[in-house]
Amino acid sequence: MREIVLINITGVDRPGLTAAITGVLAQGGVNILDIGQAVIHDTLSFGILVEIPDTEQGKSVLKDILFKGYELDQQVRFTPVSEQDYQQWVGNQGKKRHIVTLLTRKVTAGQLQAVSSITAKYGLNIDHIDRLSGRMPLDTPADKGKGCIEFSVRGEAADPQALRAEFLSVAQELNVDIAFQEDSLFRRNRRLAVFDMDSTLIEAEVIDELAKAAGVGDKVSEITERAMAGELDFRASFKERLALLKGLDVGVLDSIGASLRLTEGAETLFAELKRLGYKTAILSGGFTYFAKQLQAKLGIDYVFANELEVVDGKVTGVAIEPIVDAQRKADLLKELAHKEGLRLEQTIAVGDGANDLPMLAIAGLGVAFRAKPLVKQSAKQAISTLGLDGVLYLLGFRDRDGQL
């Protein structure tokens, strides 16, 4: 009678070990039903679920594996599996899978305990845990670290909304980011990424910088803050702020443009997206003048932003239609996806303000980046602890995959 056995092998990793073990199994005419291997700090954990035939060669295979393990200085454990248990395991395939991604400056046991406890609470089983971030020296400064752990989980969440709410609460408490997304074909097949500009690609709100030069900085900054938090209608607030810039000398644009700083991780993110064949775009409620500078610097394919009207060397304070507001951003995302022959599930949108929420909602991956609480709560995913290149982790990108 055939046997089904789970073989677990642990010990110091070495070249040729897998070949040696499977060689013994091959001599016994064994069928492989499942297999998995992981190496952590040069220590191997190797599991093989096998079907052993009722033959002369098959009868000695477990003894031969035990001897081979001893020869290779490995610990070997056998666990019999009934056909009923195996058939139940087979029947569970096809269940939904999700990816839980933990992003932080430094990974702690408390963070992992929180994530794993919440997944278990909502009926999800962890199948795999992988580290996507590179190895970090022990003396890495606290604000320079990059840690990312990816959990592959199986099952249907008992209450997805409550699960997300609990992840968000724990993330705020532990100063981490926790992303929860379906592990679908589209997650690995995205091809268009669009970005807000101000406070997303750059570390400033350009209109606030212009207002400072015009002597109305405090007033405009207050309106900007409320608009990005969702307290004011963007279109109305944009016109109000722009009107306050009337008479500003156009000569200040160059100096402001030269002073703008890219957000942490922006250059890495765009270099990798370009290498992976993505199309990229700026969809900004800011100004084309500055967006074009970023386009040249980062190699961005498309730019859609607002025109800053200038007459006789002075800013007129009049808004030129169409204004790139919240709905316009969402419409542009749809148009670009159609132009590139893509489904919306294959798109990524990243922004920080309330006027970004419509495009974040329809993108396959919508990320609120260093956003206000209202935006973080409303968006599908959020990144606040790492730089902009943290978006790569949500795609399953490993640091070792990079070529920078």
TrEMBL record:
Transmembrane segments: none annotated. The gene is serB. Its EC number is 3.1.3.3. It comes from the Bacteria. This is Phosphoserine phosphatase SerB. The lineage of its organism: Bacteria, Pseudomonadati, Pseudomonadota, Gammaproteobacteria, Pseudomonadales. One of its GO terms (molecular function) is hydrolase activity. CDD domains: ACT_PSP_1, ACT_PSP_2, HAD_PSP. It is an enzyme of class 3 (hydrolase).
